[in-house]
Every structure is written in structure tokens, then in C-alpha cells.
Specification:
about 280 residues, 4-stranded mixed sheet, alpha/beta, Spore Coat Polysaccharide Biosynthesis Protein SpsA, Chain A, Nucleotide-diphossugar_trans, GlycosylTrfase-like_prok, 7-stranded mixed sheet
């Protein structure tokens, strides 16, 4: 059934290896935070699918990739020279919230798309994010997420490589009905799209969350104090990777999440804005 749904949701899955530069804009900034060496190999198909979706947005798209540690030239910059890379200082534990806040400060688009580095998107994905955030302050674009198993992920990642640069899955020799799917998930908090000014008015992401889990649900609870379109329509493909150490040992920041969510969201917004001083100006600072 998963393969049947995947074939129906992805009659086309496109890949591009460059993005046209808009004369004005961009309208959309895609924020991608990445940590861990095991995730690096997933970046190529992820970014190639995002650039294919960017082709459909006439107002322009920028993709901001944020890593931990000192910035140094990477293979990604050679494959995708249009990607904007930035970094945060090394942290005791992976802090996705800190990384997203840094990327948001650098963003120029009116719409921020918070996107995970292990998700492949359809060609209409960024157009959907832009259209829905022009009607509401935020949106949850995802509808169904297809989780591939490890062998199918290995096959897809190998086929969609920077040397061959296929334009479609068919070009890469991959058929959706040949992929093995572990599960199909819906109604997940990520990905999200939000107007830039709304992101900052809510205080951005809460940097108290370190390691795996909690930060997205906490942010979503504050996002729900605004007008948010939660009727997702976009399918996504999730590439397999080993679970994070905190997820493996069962520590998902649950106590911190529960404590945060016990407070009214408006109170958390006020505290975060005061604490972070998260601001944006026309120079992207």
C-alpha cells in the first residue's frame, strides 16, 4: 500500500543542480540545519530536490545550510554553489534551535521554510509554502511522509549522485514501486513555513532544547497563537539514517518539553523575545 501511495504522490520527482538567481528577492528562504557525519550523504538528493522546487518559484528562493563548527569549504559548495552556508560555534549537544535562529537572521526571504536535511520534496513544495503563507502567517505543508528503509535509501542516494546529476528518479534508474517503505506518517510538526516577521515576533526557536526532540512541538504551540494553515497537501520522502543517540536511549527532552508546554504560549513568547533579542533588519542582521 505504501508503494502504491508513493507512486500516486510522486508521478514526478525532479532534481536540479543549480537555481536561477532572481533579480529581486528572494521570496523564500529555506533553512536547513545539519549535524552528524551520517547525514552528509543525504544532503545531495535533498538539496537537488529543493532546487527543483525552487525552479517553480518565480519570485526566487535561497537555501541556507547551517552547520556546527568553524566554516570551511565543503563538497556541497562545489556541487551547489548557490547554497548559502553559515555555522554556529561547537555545542555540547546538537542544538537545532540555535542553528535555525542563526539561519533565520541571515535569511532574506519573506517566507522561512524550516526543512530537515533528510526530506525529498515534490516540485510544487516551495510554491505551496509561499502561497499558503501569503494567506496565513504560517503553514504546515506536509501531508504524507514516506519513510524509506536503509537499503532503499542507499540505492537512491547512490543513484542520485553529483557525478550523474539525474533530472528525475527515472533518469537515475529508480522506480517508486521498487522502493521499500518502512512506514507512512502524517501530521508531523515538521516541516513548517512561516512569515519571517512572525518568526521573530514569536522569539524564534527555543535554544534551551539540546539534543533530539521537543523544539519543534514547542515552537508549533507558539505558532498556533497566529493564523496557521495546518491542512498539508505535500508528500515527502524521508531518507533513512541511524537514530540520534538521545532518541536511541529514550531521552527525547520530554521533561523539558512538558515543562515548557505547561506555560501559556504567550508567556513563552514574551520570555523568549526578551531573552534572545532576536531581531531582523533590512540588512539581514
Amino acid at each position: 500500500m505504501g508503494r502504491h501511495l508513493l507512486g500516486a504522490c510522486f508521478p514526478t520527482l525532479s532534481f536540479r543542480w543549480s537555481s536561477p538567481q532572481p533579480e529581486h528577492g528572494p521570496a523564500v528562504s529555506v533553512l536547513v540545519a545539519i549535524g552528524g557525519e551520517d547525514r552528509q550523504r543525504l544532503l545531495v538528493p535533498c538539496l537537488a530536490s529543493l532546487f527543483a522546487a525552487a525552479e517553480e518559484v518565480r519570485a526566487g528562493v535561497e537555501i541556507i545550510l547551517v552547520r556546527e563548527g568553524e566554516h570551511r569549504e565543503s563538497a556541497i559548495e562545489q556541487i551547489f554553489p548557490e547554497v548559502v552556508e553559515c555555522s554556529v560555534p561547537p555545542q555540547p549537544a546538537f542544538n537545532k534551535s540555535l542553528m535555525l535562529n542563526v539561519a533565520a537572521r541571515k535569511a532574506r526571504g519573506e517566507i522561512l521554510v524550516i526543512h530537515d536535511a533528510d526530506l525529498l520534496v515534490s516540485p510544487s513544495y516551495l510554491t505551496t509554502c509561499l502561497q499558503r503563507c501569503r494567506q496565513a502567517e504560517a503553514a504546515r505543508p506536509g501531508r504524507l511522509i514516506f519513510y524509506l528503509n536503509d537499503s532503499s535509501t542507499d540505492r537512491l542516494v547512490s543513484a542520485v549522485g553529483s557525478s550523474a546529476k539525474p533530472q528525475t528518479l527515472h533518469d537515475a534508474g529508480i522506480r517508486p514501486n521498487e522502493l521499500s517503505i518502512e512506514r507512512v506518517v502524517q501530521n508531523t510538526p515538521n516541516p513548517m513555513a512561516v512569515r519571517r516577521e512572525t518568526y521573530f515576533s514569536l522569539g524564534g526557536h527555543d535554544e534551551d532544547f539540546e539534543g533530539w526532540g521537543g523544539e519543534d512541538l514547542e515552537f508549533l504551540s507558539r505558532l498556533r497563537t497566529t493564523s496557521i494553515d495546518e491542512f498539508g497537501s505535500e508528500p515527502l520522502i524521508h531518507l533513512w539514517h541511524p537514530p540520534s543517540p538521545k532518541k536511541q536511549n529514550g531521552d527525547r527532552n520530554q521533561q523539558l518539553q512538558d515543562r515548557k508546554l505547561s506555560q501559556p504560549p504567550q508567556q513563552r513568547v514574551r520570555l523568549l523575545v526578551e531573552k534572545s533579542g532576536l531581531k531582523w533588519d533590512s540588512c539581514g542582521r
